[in-house]
Write a structure and sequence with these properties.
Length: 170
């Protein structure tokens, strides 16, 4: 009943993410699967778990089937869809909800940036990235990204390139 319940037609914010879990099958073998999670914030500002789906891997095609399920259950409009950087995911969101604004999850962006950073620099890099995403205005954030670039590009040139590529969606 929970999985098929009717949803409110409008959700201001919906977070979408895949969580990798280990599942023991009937044969007793353990394999990795992805639990697809849709967590919404309703018009009263309360969070609600909208859906959970299980698949063997995470992919934009399966996300589109999850989004279609949400539509079939009554969800007609999402103002902001917060997603990770999975290839094709933003397109899947726009296929189901053309008016939705897609925002990349900052936690995923910071984690991706830290893949390139030595442990001795990680705290300083996080502190400087925080100046970007906590900026009060877009202009201030762009200036902080430029400051970050000037400080870190010689050592970690990939980070500012990634953030600039993702910039319209942050």
């Amino acid at each position: 009943a929970w999985r098929t319940r009717t949803l409110d037609p409008v959700w201001p914010i919906v977070y979408f993410d895949g969580i990798v879990v280990h599942v023991r099958g009937a044969s007793g073998r353990v394999s990795q699967h992805t639990v697809y999670v849709a967590l919404g914030v309703n018009l009263e500002g309360k969070k609600e778990l909208l859906g959970l789906w299980l698949a063997e891997t995470e992919g934009a095609k399966f996300w589109l089937s999850c989004l279609t399920d949400l539509q079939n259950r009554g969800l007609k409009d999402i103002f902001v869809a917060c997603i990770d950087g999975l290839s094709g995911f933003a397109e899947a969101v726009h296929a189901a909800y053309p008016q939705a604004k897609v925002q990349l999850c900052l936690v995923h962006l910071v984690r991706a940036a830290l893949r390139y950073v030595s442990s001795e620099d990680s705290q300083a890099v996080v502190r400087d990235l925080k100046k970007i995403y906590q900026a009060a205005t877009v202009i201030e954030a762009e200036q902080e990204l430029e400051n970050f670039s000037q400080k870190w590009d010689e050592k970690y040139p990939t980070i500012s390139k990634q953030w600039r590529l993702k910039w319209p969606h942050i």
